[in-house]
Amino acid sequence: MSRPSTLAELRADGYRDRTVKEELRDNLVARLRAGEPMTTGIVGYDDTVLPELERALLAGQDLILLGERGQAKTRLVRRLVDLLDEYAPVVAGCEINCSPYHPTCSHCRILAAETGDDLPVVWIDRNRRFAEKLATPDTAVADLIGDVDPIKVAEGRTLGDEDTIHWGLVPRHHRGIVAINELPDLPERIQVALLNVLEERDVQVRGYSIRLPLDVLLVATANPDDYTNRGRIISPLKDRFGAQVRTHYPRTIDDEVAIVLAEAAPPPTDVAVHVPRFLDEVLAELVAGLRDSPEVNQRSGVSVRFTVGAHETLVSSAVRRAARTGAAVAVPRVVDLRAVIPAALGRIEFDLLEEGRELEVVEIALGRALLRVWRRHLAGELGASIDELLRRFDEDGLTVLTGDLTPGADVLASFGERVDGLARWIEHLGEDDRAEDPEVAASVVEFVLEGLHLGRRLNRDDLQGASVRYGA
């Protein structure tokens, strides 16, 4: 579709010039009236974070998202781009996206005076109106605001000429959104450079007598611990953010599992993979337990990335077994949970009085998580099938040997012709549609045996390598 290409055509088309905050507010109101969510792809924030974010945008406030690592702060910021108009008109050739109705920089003012209603107009995509900067100690004022360009001075222009300035990130996204991640990491002297942007809505460079009124939504993210440990946000700057939105970790197991399934890397395309939901619930319960543990540094937190990485490791262990044994489908089992712990330890910061107990802390938390999920699905529902299973261990001397490379069929073969109660276990664990798959059946059997062991009704011996033996 053709769009106006001059100022006269833009006026004739009826285009209404709005500030970026008015634009965001209008588009958000339109979504709310249509019954649509502000954004999609964010799980667990519908009743907490998103309403606060909506109120801040409707109020036209700059905002800061405050929360521990792995709480989707950066993702939330990036989704704000969806609330901008798909395309916006700017003066052709402008470095800072000047509005054709209100030329701001010297280049556009001169061009508007020379061309009048024939001022050339181009349209830019909404993604070009969003900038994201990770605050680092080496960030300079020139990066954010701008500085004198020596090349332009060498071309013969005077230092007092506005055109000698090379604009930084914030002016270059005039009429857009500027996000600064981990704001406390920004040196205090650099934070001062943002004061005028937030309060006066203008920038000053090298003492030039320049007033460049900016139209930006400034969004920052920070971790609560950063205020005291790694850095701080200076008080005047903190006071200029209109709203603070506090994020949080998933508050239900279902939310944690939903995020994992959405974020985890896909398995190899040449291997069929099925992950029983009860194992993802175990991982979610494990993380929930670690977030409440006094032996884990809660100021650092346990990120959802931990759960995602654990899920990926679980799947990779099952894929490795399927590749080695020739199984048609890679199905994770309880024995694969052992691979999750050492692979994920680096993501957690511990508060321990004695060194070297990190592995023990996570193993205990994993056992508690597995037992919680076992009781949720199976306790009180099995009756005679469990009694018969325990009788076979106690009286018939049944032993079950499994390992990270043991085929599912071999696990089932330990029971002889049949596994009493297997169909009922599969039903209670929600795996009815794959009841005929021996790998799924073996995963369910291992889960039942491990729950009985954790409930002190069955013995488990850890053998050499990654092998495990269950017995009376």
Keywords:
single chain, 472 residues, alpha/beta, Rossmann fold, 5-stranded parallel sheet, 14 strands, 12% strand
How would you characterize the overall build of this protein?
There is one protein chain. The protein is of the alpha/beta class and 472 residues long. The protein has two domains: 7-246, P-loop containing nucleotide triphosphate hydrolases (Rossmann fold, 3-Layer(aba) Sandwich); 253-471, no CATH class. It is built from 20 helices and 14 strands. It has helices at residues 7-12, 20-33, 49-58, 73-79, 106-115, 141-144, 150-154, 169-172, 188-191, 195-199, 235-240, 253-263, 277-292, 304-325, 337-344, 358-377, 384-395, 408-413, 422-428, 438-454; strands at 63-66, 87-91, 121-125, 130-134, 146-148, 165-167, 176-181, 216-222, 243-246, 272-273, 329-330, 400-403, 459-462, 467-471. The strands form five sheets. A five-stranded parallel beta sheet has the order 4-7-8-1-9, with helices on one face. α12 packs across α13 (277-292). The radius of gyration is 30 Å and the shape is elongated. The chain starts with 6 loop residues before the first helix and ends with a strand.
